[in-house]
Design brief:
The structure holds 2 protein chains of 2 kinds. Chain A contains 26 helices and 4 strands. By secondary structure, chain A is mainly alpha-helical. Chain A folds into 2 domains: 486 residues, Cytochrome C Oxidase, Chain A (Up-down Bundle), CATH 1.20.210; 176 residues, Cytochrome c-like domain (Cytochrome Bc1 Complex, Chain D, domain 2, Orthogonal Bundle). In chain A, helix 7 packs antiparallel against helix 9. Chain A starts with a strand and ends with a helix. By secondary structure, chain B is mostly helical. Chain B has a domain of 45 residues. The relative contact order of chain B is 0.06. The longest helix of chain B has 23 residues. Chain B is elongated. The C terminus of chain B is likely disordered. The chains are: A mainly alpha, B mainly alpha.
Chain lengths: 709, 65
């Protein structure tokens, strides 16, 4: 067989490597900033764009899609070429992919701080960016499949399966979850409402963890751990079962984010069952990764790459043990809405994704620059300060979560709640400080790495095109006698993709469709009425400010929650909520029954300065809401969009909406005046007060709400 | 415009969950049987793919130390 000469494209790998290093620093800095804001709430200085609710989505998006995203592409572009013994299909597509992805990140950074958000966690980007993501993602897939098809290696190594599953599932998740109806160029409403929106969102949210933060990184693990240790994977058989079991099970587990909520019980149970089963493939993968290193532990001591990878895989094991535990209803009742969740995700993000990316960077940069690492000592420093950072981050958060939850549920012997919400916040504030310290250590480590790798690159000479040769792949005339189907699929990327897609579609469909299908799943409540135009505008301010990052709107049917907040939330209450705003964290108290709880003036003063109403509050000040005028130019368009989505406003109501809006704002301004607060009725705060005073009231008073209309 | 309308119009939609459970179950039974019975040489060939031969890895699986 004649050998063909070709070259591997290292330049694109280098570009993604630099991007992942840059965005790591940006994303972690944003994280550190918002962590500090929780300790020192006045840190935002009354400036909207640097306030927690606006920047927290920026932090999560930057870390997930910018840091980890570029990390994925770096690893995939390097390993895919070598596993296929072929250069990337098209250098042009590689470049479009790279620059397109960076452009998406930049546009995220230019929209999220300004409150341009769809209000769905981890999918906050608005619709034009959503479309751009879909296009760039398809270009990535096109480039990947082009490479796979022109490969010179007959069989697809297991890492490539993980890449394929990643590509196809993320595409599906992104598209399904991003169905939204545009109101203007930068504003849209989720297609789904309430319970259904929540289910689709957490099906997406959970599987974004699965197929963006896990499967591609498992693929990278299966390539880079053998490469760095010089040993084949411990059990290839296990890796095959690992792959299929993981993608089969993961897709079902989303509802475990919604335990005890208004989601139908059967869907919750389904999520729990699959989450528990997930421990098997997850630990199979972890064990496979760690055992690959057996007999090579002497290398682990020497080699920075392997050190980082060992901790990464261990963190993966811890997070995937914890995951199924957290999905048990009795554990979830404790952990949910607390910092326990934050600890859990940071074991994954800092440990698994972060450390694996660092390990790969330490592996790739010296090789591509044909030199030794500038300083092994600095790499060791990075390793230890990073590890210390993780510990300092997660231990206080576990503590805070557990402590706060226990305080929430504590009753006095007389049957009263023992602690006010704010008391529980005071107790965990020192832990928030320790957490920022952990984040700071981790960030220092990342800076050390960046310095080390830049020095390495400067000392070496970059090999843009790495020469290689391999015999061309000859077409098999016919399959081997009695060949097994799995062997057949190992050679067929397109069929493998279709099979993976089938697997995840079945899981996704069974989970989601019945909630849409069976009417009894979302019992309607006759007294629940659509929002008035002013309330709708106020709700959009609530979304814009990212209130859902700290406040839930979901009272679980647990004694301490109904005692604290009021009647538990029902599915039928959310039928007009596009998007749902249940939230996933209670840094502040639940707001599901906030309507009518305080006078309008309380909200006014509280937004101006929360500590004036609640002394130890860590909520930031929102002075701009008191100064900004509400933009009413979109009211009609918003009503029309809602009508399209099935919200029963009367026909032609869009034309009348602004008149009603004015009327209601005058009423609220008059209320405020009674309490000696002079404000123009056109201010944003008026709309926000209107919304907050409406939340959760419909099930109590049907007459009250209709008077607004 | 509710999704429910589209889905309710599918005749016999209830059979889908059953079919999927069956696919799920059979798939893993067959996969399990295959993974147990597949030839060792084939597995060895597959797990060597990341190593393109130029690197001298201390291969020989399982590694003894």
């Amino acid at each position: 067989m004649e050998s063909e000469k070709f070259s591997y494209d290292n330049r694109i790998v280098k570009m993604f490597a630099y991007a992942t290093m840059l965005w790591a620093l940006v994303g972690m800095l944003a994280g550190l900033w918002i962590a500090l804001e929780m300790v020192f709430p006045r840190l935002n200085g009354g400036i909207s764009v640097i306030t927690f609710g606006r920047l927290r989505p920026l932090h999560t998006n930057a870390v997930i899609f910018a840091f980890v995203g570029n990390g994925i592409f770096m690893g995939v572009y390097y390993s895919l070429q070598r596993l296929c013994k072929a250069r990337m299909f098209s250098d042009t597509l590689s470049k479009i992919h790279f620059w397109g992805w960076q452009l998406i990140i930049v546009s995220a950074a230019l929209t999220l701080p300004f409150g341009i958000t769809s209000g769905k966690e981890y999918a906050e980007l608005e619709w034009p960016i959503d479309i751009a993501i879909a296009i760039i993602w398809v270009i990535f897939g096109w480039n990947m499949f082009g490479t796979i098809i022109k490969r010179r290696e007959r069989h697809l190594y297991v890492a490539i399966w993980f890449y394929i599953a990643t590509f196809v599932t993320v595409a599906m998740l992104h598209i399904v979850n991003s169905f939204e109806i545009p109101v203007s160029f930068l504003k849209s409403y989720s297609w789904y409402a309430g319970v259904q929106d929540a289910l689709v969102q957490w099906w997406y949210g959970h599987n974004a963890v699965a197929f963006f933060l896990t499967t591609p990184y498992l693929g990278l693990m299966y390539y880079f751990i053998p490469k760095a240790s010089g040993r084949p994977v411990y059990s290839y058989r296990l890796s095959i079962i690992h792959f299929w079991a993981l993608i089969f099970l993961y897709i079902w587990a989303g509802p475990h984010h919604l335990l005890y909520t208004a989601l139908p019980d059967w869907a919750q149970s389904l999520g729990v069952v699959f989450s528990i089963m997930l421990i098997a493939p997850s630990w199979g993968g972890m064990i496979n990764g760690l055992l690959t290193l057996r007999g090579a532990w002497d290398k682990v001591r020497e080699d920075a790459t392997l050190k980082f990878m060992v901790v990464a895989v261990t963190a993966y094991g811890m997070a995937t043990f914890e995951g199924p535990m957290l999905s048990l209803k009795n554990v979830n009742a404790i952990s949910h809405f607390t910092d326990w969740t934050i600890a859990h995700v940071h074991v994954g993000a800092l440990g698994w994704n972060g450390f694996l990316t660092f390990g790969i960077l330490y592996y790739l940069i010296p090789r591509m620059f044909r030199t030794e690492l500038y300083s092994k000592k600095l790499a060791n420093w990075h390793f230890w300060i990073g590890t210390l950072g993780i510990v300092f981050y997660v231990v206080p958060m576990y503590w805070a979560g557990f402590m706060q939850s226990n305080m929430w549920r504590k009753f006095t012997p007389e049957g009263q709640l023992q602690y006010q919400f704010i008391t529980t916040v005071e107790h965990i504030r020192p832990l928030y400080f320790l957490r920022s310290l952990g984040g700071f250590f981790y960030l220092i480590g990342a800076f050390i790495m960046t310095y080390n790798l830049i020095k390495t690159a400067r000392a070496g000479s970059f090999l843009a095109n790495e020469e290689a040769e391999a015999p061309a792949l000859v077409k098999l005339q016919k399959p081997h006698e009695g060949e097994h189907w799995h062997r057949w699929i190992e050679r067929r990327p397109v069929q493998l993709m279709l099979l993976s897609l089938g697997v995840v579609i079945i899981g996704g469909a069974i989970e989601i469709i019945p909630t849409f299908l069976v009417e009894s799943n979302v019992p309607t409540i006759a007294s629940v009425k659509p929002y008035t135009p002013l309330e709708l505008q106020g709700r959009d301010i609530y979304i814009r400010e990212g209130c859902y990052n700290c406040h839930s709107q979901m009272i679980r049917p647990l004694r301490h929650e109904t005692a604290r907040y009021g009647e538990y939330s029902k599915a039928g209450e959310f039928v007009y909520d596009h998007p749902f705003q249940w939230g996933s964290k209670r840094t502040g108290p639940d707001l599901a029954r906030i309507g009518g709880k305080y006078p309008d003036s309380w909200h006014y003063n509280h937004m101006l300065e929360p500590t004036s109403m609640s002394e130890h509050s860590i909520m930031p000040n929102y002075p701009w809401l008191l100064d900004n005028d509400l933009d009413t130019t979109l009211t009609a368009a918003k009503i029309r969009a809602m009508i399209i989505l099935g919200v029963p406003y009367p026909k032609g109501y869009d034309k009348q909406a602004n008149a009603d809006l004015k009327k209601q704002s005058l009423e609220i301004a008059a209320h405020l005046k009674k309490d000696k607060i002079e404000t123009a009725p056109s201010r944003e705060i008026i709309a926000l007060i209107a919304y907050l005073q409406r939340v959760g009231k419909d099930i109590h008073t049907s007459t009250d709400t209709t008077t607004h209309k | 415009m509710k999704f429910i309308n589209y889905l309710q119009s599918i005749a016999g939609v209830g059979i889908f969950p059953l079919i999927s459970l069956l696919i799920f179950f059979l798939f893993f039974v067959i996969l399990g049987i295959w993974a147990l019975r597949v030839k060792k040489e084939h597995i060895l060939e597959l797990e060597r793919i990341p190593f393109d031969g130029r690197e001298s890895e201390q291969s020989n699986h399982p590694v003894k130390h």
